[in-house]
Amino acid sequence: MTAASSGALGWVAGPAAMLAFAGVTALQSTLFADCYRSPDPEHGPHRNRTYAGAVDRNLASRRAAPAMAVRHSLEVADDRCDDDGHRPRRAGTAWTCAAHIITAVIGSGVLSLAWSVAQLGWVVGPACMFCFALVTYVSAALLADCYRRGDPEKGPRNRSYVDAVRAYLGKKHTWACGSLQYVSLYGCGVAYTITTATSIRAILKANCYHDHGHDAPCDYGGSYYMLVFGAAQLFLSFIPDFHDMAWLSVVAAVMSFSYAFIGLGLGMATTISNGRIKGSVTGVPMRTPMQKIWRVSQAIGDIAFAYPYSLILLEIQDTLKSPPAENKTMKRASMISILVTTFFYLCCGCFGYAAFGSDAPGNLLTGFGFYEPYWLIDFANACIILHLLGGYQVYSQPIFQFADRFFAERFPDSGFVNDFHTMRVPCLPPWRVNLLRVCFRTVYVASTTAVAVAFPYFNEVLALLGALNFWPLAIYFPVEMYFIQRNVPRWSARWVVLQTFSVVCLLVSAFALVGSIEGLVTQKLG
């Protein structure tokens, strides 16, 4: 077509037209380059990533209408992607979202609820669970509104919790949030090491009691089994993309529901066989009021560990289709999942307390409130072990990936950091090994195992993790982001209510934190 056009124009007009259009195109590109940022072309806070976005931001909205119409026609024509180019289109609904939340929330935290209700009593125990359910829903609703910046239906998406903190609160808050998140993930690794060793011992004890009677001296140390679990995790840490394997989440979900329902069923069966409901209004009696206060604070920390899911909420919300607006669907899904989870938690905690009263064990399936059927107890603890083998990696891999990125950016020319070496093991495919990964991941797994050996206290560790994470990650950051998202003016009624809500939750979290630290120190010294 170029030859035909030049022939039609002739030797003078043809080349001249090409040069003219080249000049126009160069001028046009220069002008458009200055429109990438608004309002300042060098330091403007707004990036215009599309032609329509630049027209919309730099010209009046009525002039943007033709460009927006073109963009809309392109979106309609290509219905395989979302408004942000995500392929395939998000297809999540309120029910799939609720299923994700329930699967993520119900886990090892359910095992301590009977003990928590026993410390609080028949009135405060269930009431405390209802309060945490309400607080969790409020937190989820605030965070759901922060999924999109600006317009709740068309604004840019924040696909993760840290992305949202970075977008709304800036770099300093992002560092604080990231640090708390990694401390939380590390703590979960410690808690999972403790719980797995306890479950292995419970299987051995159940078989011993079945063979030799309930009064037999069936004592097994826990440190050895923590070391075994640590060795297994060291091996799993070097399997490429282990945490991304689809079957891992499926197995974890099936295992967590299995042992949770077994604990619920055993509690119900024991209560029925007892013929009465044990427990009291005030909970387990203690020798001094101060001891009672510490136990109550630890129980609150355990419940706080079992409920919030703020760290994964935006990732789950990023699976939802639109319309309707994702925040509306997420709020509905949160309501459904919290109602289901609270009902399940109440059943587990209350039936466990009703079955054992003041003797409710710290871990419902390993504290030997139940002796028979021993095979069912073995199966439940095997489910816990399988769940936590994969769960440890789910919580540890983000730390491994952060370390890989951090050192690669700091030392781009280091062979120790960036070079991979191929190892060949008989009967296995070739294994690519990086020296930094070997060292860092070995030290990481060894440290979580060492901390677990030093502080093998299930309830106190869960309470500490719950207290550390509850206020900053589930309350403070969502509230502060919501203020910016909705432009809530200072000292308005909504601002005062939410700040009061945040302060009250801070006091509760501090109370649980002090109690959990006291419990760890007392257990260690006692």
UniProtKB/TrEMBL annotation:
<dbReference type="GO" id="GO:0016020">
    <property type="term" value="C:membrane"/>
</dbReference>
<feature type="transmembrane region" description="Helical">
    <location>
        <begin position="464"/>
        <end position="484"/>
    </location>
</feature>
<feature type="transmembrane region" description="Helical">
    <location>
        <begin position="336"/>
        <end position="356"/>
    </location>
</feature>
<dbReference type="InterPro" id="IPR013057">
    <property type="entry name" value="AA_transpt_TM"/>
</dbReference>
<feature type="transmembrane region" description="Helical">
    <location>
        <begin position="123"/>
        <end position="144"/>
    </location>
</feature>
<keyword id="KW-0472">Membrane</keyword>
<feature type="transmembrane region" description="Helical">
    <location>
        <begin position="97"/>
        <end position="117"/>
    </location>
</feature>
<feature type="domain" description="Amino acid transporter transmembrane">
    <location>
        <begin position="92"/>
        <end position="521"/>
    </location>
</feature>
<feature type="transmembrane region" description="Helical">
    <location>
        <begin position="438"/>
        <end position="458"/>
    </location>
</feature>
<dbReference type="Pfam" id="PF01490">
    <property type="entry name" value="Aa_trans"/>
</dbReference>
<keyword id="KW-0812">Transmembrane</keyword>
<keyword id="KW-0813">Transport</keyword>
<feature type="transmembrane region" description="Helical">
    <location>
        <begin position="245"/>
        <end position="269"/>
    </location>
</feature>
<feature type="transmembrane region" description="Helical">
    <location>
        <begin position="6"/>
        <end position="27"/>
    </location>
</feature>
<feature type="transmembrane region" description="Helical">
    <location>
        <begin position="496"/>
        <end position="517"/>
    </location>
</feature>
<protein>
    <recommendedName>
        <fullName>Amino acid transporter transmembrane domain-containing protein</fullName>
    </recommendedName>
</protein>
<keyword id="KW-1133">Transmembrane helix</keyword>
<feature type="transmembrane region" description="Helical">
    <location>
        <begin position="376"/>
        <end position="395"/>
    </location>
</feature>
<keyword id="KW-0029">Amino-acid transport</keyword>
<dbReference type="GO" id="GO:0006865">
    <property type="term" value="P:amino acid transport"/>
</dbReference>
